[in-house]
What does this fold into?
Amino acid sequence: MWLPRPDAKYTPRVARQVEEAKVKDILVSNEELCGQYLGEDLINEETGEVMFEAGDEITEELFEAFAEAKIKGFTTLAIDNINVGPYIRNTLAGRQESFTRRSADRHLSGDASG
It folds into this structure.
């Protein structure tokens, strides 16, 4: 069975080789994942609470929170900043922040109409 070297970067070529070898899970270092983004919401199965949202940036602090929540695996967005950039993710994150600020401004001004 073929496996990439532990220190290999996950390039399109390596991705093709992994797919051809039918590898389902890949263990990568925390350092390599920092700066990437979660590919899906991570939900507490018992409460239904969304603990981490798709698009959240992966940081060392997030790894600490994963350890506390006993999260062992997750997906990431396929962003390589060469062929695929984080443009849609950044746009949606900006809109969410803008929406939250507008909601807070309305709440503080006493305007509950929307």
Notes: Confidence is low (pLDDT under 50) at residues 98-104. The helical segments are 12-20, 30-33, 60-69, 87-109.
